[in-house]
Amino acid sequence: MKLYTTLSHLVDIKLFTHSTLRINCFSAAYYSQKPLWGKNKPHRKVKLNLYFDSMADPAAEKLLAPLRASVKAQGDFVRKLKSEGAPALDIKAAVAELLSRKKLLEETELKLAPNATFDRARMEDLLKRRFFYDQSFAIYGGITGQFDFGPMGCAFKANLLHAWRQFFVLEEQMLEVDCSILTPEPVLKASGHVDRFADLMVKDVKTGECFRLDHLIKAHLEKIAADKKTSEATKAECQDICIKLDGMTKVEMAHIMKKFDMKSPLNGNDLTEPIEFNLMFGTQIGPSGLVKGFLRPETAQGIFVNFKRLLEFNQGKLPFAAAQIGNAFRNEISPRSGLIRVREFTMAEIEHFCDPNDKAHPKFENVKNSELLLYSACSQMDGKPAEKISIGKAVSTDLVANETLGYFMARIQQFLVRCGVDPARLRFRQHMSNEMAHYACDCWDAECLTSYGWVECVGCADRSAFDLTQHTQATGVRLAAEKKLSEPIVKDVVEAVPNRAVMGKIFKRDMKIITEALQMLNINEIETLENDLQSKGEYPLRIGDQQFLLTRDHVAVKRYKATEFVEEIIPSVIEPSFGIGRIMYSIFEHNFKQRENDEQRTYLSLPAIIAPLKCSVLPLSSNPEFVPFIKSLSAELTKVDVSHKVDDSSGSIGRRYARTDEIAIPYGITIDFDTLKEPHSVTLRERDSMVQVRLPLQDVAKVVHNLSYNKEVWSDIESRYPKFEQQENTA
Amino acid sequence: MKLYTTLSHLVDIKLFTHSTLRINCFSAAYYSQKPLWGKNKPHRKVKLNLYFDSMADPAAEKLLAPLRASVKAQGDFVRKLKSEGAPALDIKAAVAELLSRKKLLEETELKLAPNATFDRARMEDLLKRRFFYDQSFAIYGGITGQFDFGPMGCAFKANLLHAWRQFFVLEEQMLEVDCSILTPEPVLKASGHVDRFADLMVKDVKTGECFRLDHLIKAHLEKIAADKKTSEATKAECQDICIKLDGMTKVEMAHIMKKFDMKSPLNGNDLTEPIEFNLMFGTQIGPSGLVKGFLRPETAQGIFVNFKRLLEFNQGKLPFAAAQIGNAFRNEISPRSGLIRVREFTMAEIEHFCDPNDKAHPKFENVKNSELLLYSACSQMDGKPAEKISIGKAVSTDLVANETLGYFMARIQQFLVRCGVDPARLRFRQHMSNEMAHYACDCWDAECLTSYGWVECVGCADRSAFDLTQHTQATGVRLAAEKKLSEPIVKDVVEAVPNRAVMGKIFKRDMKIITEALQMLNINEIETLENDLQSKGEYPLRIGDQQFLLTRDHVAVKRYKATEFVEEIIPSVIEPSFGIGRIMYSIFEHNFKQRENDEQRTYLSLPAIIAPLKCSVLPLSSNPEFVPFIKSLSAELTKVDVSHKVDDSSGSIGRRYARTDEIAIPYGITIDFDTLKEPHSVTLRERDSMVQVRLPLQDVAKVVHNLSYNKEVWSDIESRYPKFEQQENTA
Fold it and tell me: Is residue A333 within 8 angstroms of chain B, CB to CB?
């Protein structure tokens, strides 16, 4: 799992990139004192950029062509510098320029797309009003970057996680684990998080108020650029800096702060120099205050440190995948964008361990024809748009590094689309060499287009043997697997064998370290030992500060041939890593709809499998004759695992349907006066089409069960039962 | 959720009681340096005390009678003191004596029970070897009190939580929420945790090593008592102190430390005075270091602070229940007893909000005949054993405070037994008045008997209006509901009404606080104001340090009659709170079995609904003809949501069955040479009875699905298909 930071030297830590997520305001107050109850924000419409194939639109393409050419020219220049082995600083500067041109192209592309007006404020109002989620501890003023999921959000999340478990863990027979959140320092030291998981910030020297440095610079320069009195040259400079901000170093940013004389935007106070702020929450484990620990910033490390046990559980065989669903924590300097950048979040991560020399996947055949919208590093350098391509072709042409990576990308797309992500607003963007970790072979992010821009929702990386190697080095426990050799190898073995009986008496407690040291000698050292024993009769063995004089009585050199059937390998890791909150947010945006003739009537078209509740039960009126039918129907629905809501409140059927549409209930059963007659029957309504059918009461629980668990689709039901024609608003 | 502490003045904080969990060793080293790989502990057999009805055993009862009488005498004495209004200190001393007598009775009772030898070390070895769970970060030396669940433990846990959600949330239509773990200080200040959630500890003055005080005293005195040179009088004193330790104050414990001159057991260093150590993990939220937060010590507070939104979601109606599954954290001074006392754990909590004057439950009728083993506070004071009684009778005789509490107790029992808790080792123990929180009306703990003694697994308390009141006071946000009055009430209203137009001009920005202050005046104050205005022409309104002079132009007193249709009530909360790790541990112990004729063959008889995997698929041999059958069967099982494991490793069928028995797989399908013939058939084996049937291949997925999800039972299958007689060990 990856999180974007502004420090370009941090690229070898796994981070979530959000370069596309910058928005124009920033909240310095992370602990708002204002209660949120009943506050109605003014509705502000946000333009939604629906992704579109600009190549198919000649007018748009004409405008984009020069921008594409400009990106390509710079891309070629970077390639040239690299091939010539130019100085690192020159390459860095060229890459920064490339990124700024690329950003301009992408932003223009988004602006040119046919815009649907998406009303984010209205959606957020709905999500809050119906308690999908809201700020945590709101009655205490709230904490930004933390959210509580209410009944609807919690059920949606639980269903999404359940679907994930079915789709990945069960179907692929992965080994799911559930590891500790509190993590001792040495583990995160080895993973690199203690030293490098940081963002730059500055502090108000008087009040201690903190600001994330890139946010501060951006806000400051945008204010200057918006001022009428500012010269065109300065405006251009400000815009240029904003575009290049992502790739800047600490020194460069400090320089800009000074140049523009930036102060606290709250009170004009002076600010400190930039400080690297580690994003992990620290605490002490145990009462002594001596054992430092952190809340894990990702779930992956729990899997890596358990690798040996997992391999054993899998009877020593590769490949296998482990998976984990759990919470992780990042102490963001200024959380923002709702569920997208938060301090506490749920992740679902997979670590697929395989032979580094064989990354084929047995089920790749099943997905090879899946078409994905791929935005390759090459296209990004050449100013070309993303393109649809089958994953089979992508792997066979080496665009995607290997079958296993390709298999997971296809499965990620299947999963996201099944859960409600709009396939037209989903792409896979490859990391360019400057953003990819040094040890990674290839990395693709599944990005969803939202009103915040393209949001990285799933990262999918080939992390090579990095993590296992790091923990092996830190602990001395070899996190490796054995691979059967195709043919046994006969090896010459030279060994320094201690005479334990004799040595034990002399060296006593030191015997253990001496034996270990002898085992560690390499072939040259053993030969020196052999020569020394023969020529001088003794050999000085150094261990740390100590020295032990060994004689021919103590140790003998033996030579023999050994046959090896296995070799030790450190597995490669392919890591698909899901940000659950971001996926949820994207699904909300992609499924927030307004009725055609009534803008006020909004609803969420979540797929049934993840909808919080599967079905509503609505008596036409408060007539007591309906009550026994409601009770028995509710019991029957519970029996077949259909979560449902009985809405016997007053209000017309139409109004109650509208209420259930808001919380995404896909099916509605109405009990009316015809229900009372024999044979008993009810109506069943589908949320998106608002089509209703009439069917026997005894069928309905089973039908809704089948619809809810993807065993039948609505058209099956429509063809089987007569349509019920009464209009909602007249009912 | 409640956690036991040694501070008797902490009774009004929700704590998990483990007075029954004390064991005789203690681990001061909370950060063990020893790696755990492949370490085989010597098998140590622990006597398992199966709970039994001692009343039915005249010989045992004869031995217990004097102990019962001694408890009753002291119980009566305590009652007498209370009825006479004796000094608090006298009552406290008498209660301590009562507790010590009660403890002796209960321990004797357990000793007299018919003992099955339970081999805890062997069970722990199985759980570790098959990676149900193990110490976290073991390759880094491990952290005590933290555990990672491997594939089998994780699947078991996920199934248990899924069952919980089905059983409680869906069936009772509860409002499930998912709230933040990181909690700002003011929330936990209001709940009482910041001030009172503490254990006593002492520190080594030189090394800083910490010891939990009660553990230290107990270990020290037991060592003295075990010494042959110790006099009988001192031995008796030591035993007496150990028994009374639970109820002792800080001062009393400090006195004992001094009297016995206790030093660090590790190195004989001096120890500090007792220190109250808060058990919450602290951290800072945000970069400034100024916002203090804690990892939540229970999930309940997240529900309470969201009460208003939940009530709104429920359309303002009472009663309703909210639920939450999530992790909580407690920085135990010395964690121990495996999963029972840990630093990081999963809870599932329900908060049922209801009218304080109406705690009837609409579904109580459904459970009223359920028999529960109740160990009432009275029985505990009278030295009587727990008794089986129907929950209907328990509520009607006021033994259990109300229907809602009784309903949940019955449902808790149903749930635990369904998930594998042995009903013979389950009891409900009522809190005695000395251990119950001052605000609670009644509290019963569901306790499971394990080799550690009776372990509290679920708490079930009527917490009255305590929590909502606390958060209302802390925030000023009224966490209350409206109740429709049976008849409208007409009230005389007296109001001080400001003349906004006039006052606004004079008081400007202060207008708001003045208006608020006027609204807050009580009837007497309004009358004073009215008199003052009439007599003096002005009234000094004090607000904090300020004073505002009001005249008749500013404010007028109005009197009128108002009809009220609703009254405001603060709901009562009934809280069932499940410790998931403890339930898992109890289920492990209650389901760890050995085959009758082969002690070495151990297995776990987990019920199918919570078993990690539902079914194994075993080809008789590595014959390639079996492969297509395995593949298609595996696909079919996945389609009907049956998690399964294909074991095509070498080894006899019998050995492979034994392996799947160890990981609790309830059903095994074997593909043999008869499978190859048409009509294709397979054998199906049930784990506990080891009975096998032969059935058509096409039936088997559906059959295992039905068995796994409680839709059919094994006897249905046995009666439908022919028995397959081949013996396991010969197959």
Answer: yes
